[in-house]
TrEMBL record:
It comes from the Eukaryota. It comes from Porites evermanni. Pfam families: UQ_con. This is UBC core domain-containing protein. Keywords: ATP-binding, Nucleotide-binding, Transferase, Ubl conjugation pathway. PROSITE patterns: UBC_1 (PS00183), UBC_2 (PS50127). Belongs to the ubiquitin-conjugating enzyme family. The active site is at C98. Residues 14-160 form the UBC core domain. SMART domains: UBCc.
Amino acid sequence: MASTSSNVENLHPQIIKQVSKELTSLTNDPPEGIKVFVNEQDITDIQATIEGPAGTPYEGGLFRVKLVLGKDYPTAPPKGFFLTKIFHPNVASNGEICVNTLKKDWKQDLGVKHILLTVKCLLIVPNPESALNEEAGKLLLEKYDDYSKRAQLFTDIHAKIKLKAESSEKGDGVEVMMQGIKRASDKALDKKKKEKKRALKRL
């Protein structure tokens, strides 16, 4: 925590003011499919969720990303990470994002919104030429169907956890209900059998 808070101390007050203003704007008027979470204690630690774009293997997933503004921001670009596990050519195993906007194409006037939109675009059009995940980059170029299936699997497992948990809870509820019905019907059958036995005894 100390290292991230020291970035706030090292940033010029004008930069802090500028970032704070942009984050407020992003919170009040977020880009489509992107939601920003502001860390009041440390504005250099920016987190957001990005909805997996329709028509991609990431559709239906909700991906949490993190931008870390270093002490040289905005001269140097922030670092970007996926906190949600994802199978993507431009995302390393530790979640680090390789985006030209965050590297060689960085310009000081590009803000947080531009970066988040660029990351979202990367989910639509990955760049296998600057792959941090070589396996994903190779599959994307040579066996797209395999790449798509793997990316979808990761999305289903890691980016849809809440939905799965909810549906399994509902499923468990249905199962419990069905078991209850079965027990009730078994009891009813037992009762009928006993009544039948009594009736036969009377005869």
